[in-house]
Structures are given as C-alpha cells and as structure tokens.
Amino acid sequence: MENFNDYLQNLSQEAKKKDDNDILKAYKNQFSIPQLNGKDVVYFSGNSLGLSPKKAQAYVQNELQNWQNLGVEGHFTGEFPWATYEQNVKEGLAKIVGAKPSEVAAMGSLTSNLHFLMATFYRPHAKKFKILVEKNIFSSDAYIVQSQAEWHGFDAKYAIIYVEPNENHILEEKSTLEAIATHHESLALILLGGVNFISGQALEMNKICAQAKKYGITIGFDLAHAVGNIPLSLHDWGIDFAAWCSYKYLNAGPGAIAGIFVHEKHHTNTDLKILKGWWGNRFESRFNMNRIFEEAEGADKWQLSNPDILSLASLRASIEIFSDLDFDIYFAKSNALFSFLFDALAKIKENSGNAFQIITPFEDSKHGCQVSIKLKQAPKLLNYLHSKNIIADLRKPDIIRFAPVPLYNSFEDISVLVLEVCNFFKELVFK
Ligand SMILES: *Cc1c(COP(=O)(O)O)cnc(C)c1O
Question: Which pTM does this prediction carry?
C-alpha cells in the first residue's frame, strides 16, 4: 500500500517529465479542446469523435465562401476546384493506410461503402456463400453482413459464421485462423474489424489475411477504429478491400466523408462487378454524360456521387496534419500513452481488490491507444469523471473506453484521469 501511495504521489510529476520529452506535444495547439464548466475538458473520446483541427474551420469556411462567390463555377475554378477536390486527400490517406494513392478514395459513409464494396466482393453461390465475422462486431457491420446474405437469398442464420471471443472479450488469433480453416469450403468472404470498437484489441491483420489467401477466400476489413490509430500496410498485406470512417482518429468531423481501399490486384479485373455512378467514370469524360461507362483507374471507379465538399475540406485539414507526421514517432507516443494508462489502471485494479477488469490486451501490436475497462458501476464512474471535466464513453452496460490520442492528449491528461479514477474508488483503494 505504501508503494501504491508513493506511486500516486509521483504520478503527475512523472507525467510532466514525459510531456517535457514529448516531441509531438505542440500538435495539441492545432486542435480545439471542448469546454465544460468554463474549462478545457480532458478528452478521451477521440476514438468516437476526434477533435476539430483548428484549420478545419478555415477550410470549410473557404468553401462556403467559394460557394457564395463562385456558385456553380466553383466546381472548376478557385484554388481547390470541387470537381477534383478529393485528389487533395488521396496521398495523405494512402500514407495512413499503407497503400498506393490509386488504391484509396474518399467517398460516402462507412456503412454504405461496405455495402458497395460487398456488391463487388461478396458474390455468393449455393456452395460458397458464408461470411465470417467476429461475434463482437459493431452493430452496423452485423446488419450489413446479415442483410447482404438475405439480399442474395440466403438465410442469415446459416450464412454468417461468428467467431467467438474468449471470456475476456479477446478474439484469439487461433480461433480466427481455425474458423477459416474449418469453414473454408463454404466461405465466400471474411469481414473483420482491424481494431475492435469495444475491447480496443488490434487484430494481426497480416496473419489473418495470409490464412484467407491460403484458402483463396476474399478478405475485407472495417478500419473504423484502426485508421489513424495503428500502423497499417494494406497493400503489402494483400488485403482485398477495406473501408473506414473519418470522424474517429482522422478528426474530420461528425458524419464526415469516409474512405475505401481496393487492392491494386483487383483494379483491372473485369470479372468483378461494381455498382456504378457517374463519379466512377473517368474524369476526362465524366461530364460528357455518355450512356457508356468509362471506368476511372484504381479505387476511383467505386466512387458513385460527387462528394460532400464541406466534409472533404475538414478532412483535408486533418490529413495535412497527418501528412507532416513521422509515423514512427506518432505510434511510439501512442504506445507510451497506452502503457502509462494501462499500467496505472492495472495498479489501481490490484489495490482496489479488482474493482474492475481491463479488457484491452497489453501485448505489443495487439492494441492501439484505447484502453477499455469493465465494471458494474461503469455508468456511475462515467458520471463522476464527467463531473470532473473528463470525457470518456460508456458501451452499455458495463464498459468504459478511454482513448488517449497522440495528437492532442498528454501524459498529464492521463495522470488527471488516473487520480480521479482513484478518488472514485477511494474507499476501496485507501482502505
Ligand atoms: C463507428 C463505426 C461505424 C459507424 O458507421 P457509419 O456508417 O459511419 O455511421 C461502423 N462500424 C464500426 C466498426 C465503427 O466503429
């Protein structure tokens, strides 16, 4: 107990030291920090809605201004004409997901993009129609795969194979690899989350992808919680397709335009069918309005509609920040924040007679920056933290997620959180 008290006493000093050595600490100034009770909040919900880059306001304002001043001519005039605005984020997105610029496109929304991509990549037939997903999949993704199976005339009860996590919410790699081997003959598609939204567990995507390839099964990933959170090499891993939203770690704003990845190996495969819209037509002939679709190169041909420029503008602001980053330093800070928080929570847990469970795996490369805890009093703890200006979130009924984000969270933020968690458990901790 002595040690634990010493540890708590030194925690904020320790945090300050780490902040002093943090090469990325100035990035926080590029973001607007929300306020509660007239004070900056301590924000741990960047995994749900990333904070606003200050530049986003100017970039969005700029396009509103262009709309006012140029009207329809803004499509082809101005500094960043709308007709080609999406090109401004391609390189940056490609860098973030480890792809070639031709393999990515900013478009639509996550759920609808997954449906569009499944229109291409889920082509079931009587003997090979099943879809393998994880049991703890996000609700929207569950609805996607169920409704896709039904749309193709299959009974979702038989068509969806759910891989079960262990009793600690962890999806063991062995279970996934074995499930693929067991069901390979009937599997038409594997769709997994790169980082699980509840547990914060990162999957070893490359290994799972290799297993899928071994059995010739198409594999796609939902990267909602992975993009901007963990290192990705979608091209080198050979993943067939992926989709993500841009309002979590990519900080592009609520409901902002999403993104897709389609591996180069599929770009000229005429056996693959795509759902088409005019934005997937080559730029050069798009506005000729021909009856014959002339497909754009690369992932662009999956685009359907002219994109929402206001959210592309805020995405551009955010992507510019990422484009400047040294990712080795960024992910090193992510690991350091994670470890600092995880260690502290583990100590509280130990000294509070296991008042809660930590469900995020600690091993390297099995997590991003999120740490999730599970406890009966989760709603109470969340309210308590909120009363102390700390924002985190509850996954009903009993899980709280904390996501210290390397771009705008400090080690001090973590020490503030940890001390308040301790205060909440005071009776238990200091008994
Ligand atoms: C956030 C999230 C979504 C949200 O889908 P939208 O279409 O953007 O509303 C879907 N799937 C996962 C895994 C998510 O984390």
Answer: 0.97
